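Limitations

Structures in this collection are predictions, not experimental determinations, and the ligand pose is part of the prediction. Treat each record accordingly. The example that follows, with iron/sulfur cluster as the small molecule, is included so readers can see exactly what is and is not provided: the inputs are given verbatim, and the output is the predicted complex.
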Amino acid sequence: MLEVKNLSKFYIKKKIWGKDQEVRALDGVSFNVKKGECLGIVGESGCGKSTLAKTLLGIEKETSGVATIEGKSRQQLGDKEWHKKIQMVFQDPYSSLNPRLKAIELIAAPLMINEGLSLKDAKGSALKMLQKVGLRAEMAERYPHMLSGGQRQRIGLARALMLRPSILICDEPVSALDVSIQAQVLNLLMDLQDEFELTLLFISHDLHVIKHIGHSILVMYLGKVAEFGERDTLINLPLHPYTQALLGTIPGLDGKKHPPLQGELPSPLNPPPGCTFHKRCPKAQKSCEINIPPPTIKSGRIVACDLITSQ
Ligand code: SF4
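Predicted complex:
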């Protein structure tokens, strides 16, 4: 369904004094997702997850590389068709909804903007979608501040589904919600995934959630792919020291003890040379300070670490 090849997004940070600096927010990222499956994307904040989402949506223009949906790039499909196929649910259900619009207007908006329908014509479909996400019809006339966090996130979900996308990017969709509500919204998302045959890209820092919902996992570090593969392969036998360290923060997830993650994520403005993980890596050797490990297929997944041999 979705194929991403060598996708990069570099920003130039202007300096008043000295040379401008290049920030490699996304650096040669490749992966694919099968139709109807869910890819979990993990990594610390600042690792490029949100830049990846914005670049796939077309909010940011890629510096190089290409993404295709069912074999067609955004250039081939055109912006309008691309945006119909790929939609997003945002992390904060409050700031992503216009506080001056009622729930029904928020849900109907994609049809009004993209299809040129009036509110009157879009209202019927919007009401059906409101009920599909588990909200009662009387909530249609409420403003975002009159709804709970979970209800607002359901509105965000309904709005994202109005154009019947093939792919839904969910950027930390439950992290702003109470723990008691998180499971309800996740279960709803999984039901809707089945019903609408959605392909999901689920961004989260929570490996428990990713383990529950993802068919495959992409681990990102400083804009690059550290490890990418099928969920059980990665959880049961993580190869990259960064994946192992992330799993090490969650006791018992893979049943093994890994060294915990040391130190802070380096600044993307001044990344370390060689393997960008070497300053925090418990397995680093002298060569890791010089050589940049290319993503390579090892033991049934893609991993970017020179010191791993296939097992
Ligand atoms: Fe660690 Fe070296 Fe592998 Fe990088 S290449 S992850 S520093 S062992």
